[in-house]
Specification:
Length: 563
Amino acid sequence: MTKWRAIYSTIIRALFTGVFFLTFSLQTQAQTPLELLAPLDIPLILSGNFGEFRGSHFHTGIDIKTQGKEGFPVLAAASGKVERIKVSPWGYGNTLYIKHSDGSSTVYAHLQRFDPQIQDWVRNRQYKGRVFSIDLTPTADFVFAAGDTIGWSGNSGSSGGPHLHFEVRDAQQHPVNPLHWDLPITDNRPPEVGKLKVIPIDVNGLEKREMDVDAKAGDTTLVKAGEVHLGVWSIDRLDGASNVCGVYSIDVKVDGEEYFRCTIDTLDFSVNKDMNAHVYYSTWKKGRKSVHRFNKLPGDRLPIYDFLSDNKLVIPVDSIMKVDVVCKDVHGNSRAKSYFLKGDLTPPKYVCKEGESSQIVNKIAETNSVTELRVGGVDVNIPKGSLYDKEHVYLEVYDSLEFAIGSWDVPLKKAISVSVKLPQDYRQENWVARSVDDKGGVSGAIVCKQQVGRLDFKTKNMGRYKMDRDTIPPRLLPKHSGTPVVKNGDLIFHVEDAVSGVEKIEATMDGEWILLRWNPKKKEAIYKASDSVHEKGSKVKIEVVARDAVGLESKWSGYVQMK
Ligand SMILES: [Zn+2]
């Protein structure tokens, strides 16, 4: 490159950077200046915070406790217009999304009910569309000022107890940490920081997770010399509740040099399941232990990493490695711990051998290629991009209908496909794949597709599976003996399904569709007398149909004296 060209390219680069920073600062300005009021007029005690681990994703809001009760007025945290209304028996349940003038929005979930005008609009849409679940942008203008009541707190959807889930999203719909706003929440407790997880790496660059070691703070721990990955157990609790929450940031130094830093400020729904890659999945899947890794797996796309060292961590034999960890919460409370690691000369054993027998096939799977495992009538296809890292994978077949896809502690980014050869005699049945735990217990049920003598299903979980038939239709009957009519005039049905789960429940009154509010947690479906579809005191014919996930149906019908 000539001198002039070098200067020219420096100028171009400087211009580019300038434009980038300008755009960036404009964007951040547009996202955050909004002021927020508390969405509940009770002391704000949290049972969950932003960024804590949940199932297979980060929690994207805060959970505010509601004293074990439902029915507290939920207030608009800022002025705005309702942009989305969702009703679902699952997930967030009854939810309102309010859009604010700066493009950001706030979300209020697990509500018991909405503001009466919204409630009416929703019921109309449900009757028009003949559906219980809706997810709509309202055609009417529901505009609220900050502090207005928009609904009442509840326990709807997959909520484990009465609370309000409150979320803040920026103009790009990315959830941001609500604790950055000045909400009246007291938090004087620093995070808890536990043992350091030391995971040996073998000569093939594979984690030997079955040989991991826990190092106690302050102690010098003997671990296999050589390359390792590290992580730390850390959680946070806030004042007034014993609930386990997540930490906000983690700083790691190795022998005094910065090694790792992450901050959970903004998340991204499109990659939120990569939490399975950030958490040490083995102890998370087995015992819900919150161990944060200090290494980013190659497939992890989370926007939480501030600093990642390029250096591999190698435990020395003749000296001691010092690991300093500082965990913080949003409110500035912090806790520091130090760990000392000394190398043990015996090298980690390399046990993974590619190969197969009549019952088992072992392979080393790369992230960027397809891996096929095939043995004993079972085919497993691990598509390109399903793994977060290079892994030793295997398929072990116990009998024609039970097998394990390993290792159970490999997190999956995309679903893998499984195809099982079907025994001749069972062609006409409905099949599901069920998970088998360590003690042989079965749970869950993935519905299988049946074609040319094979059963196909997709799963996002490695582990042991058993193919099972679902022959039992849902159980459907009036909740209280005899008649579905209860005191206040509502109709209540009990509905549940043992294997594949209830998928749909619908009812008609004298042949006309009526709305059943389905609550899977309580295993009940309710027609509300206040819908006023019936004439008071009339005798009507009620017909109810419940269907499970494999398509088996149960029916109930009867003449009912309405109140
Ligand atoms: Zn929540």
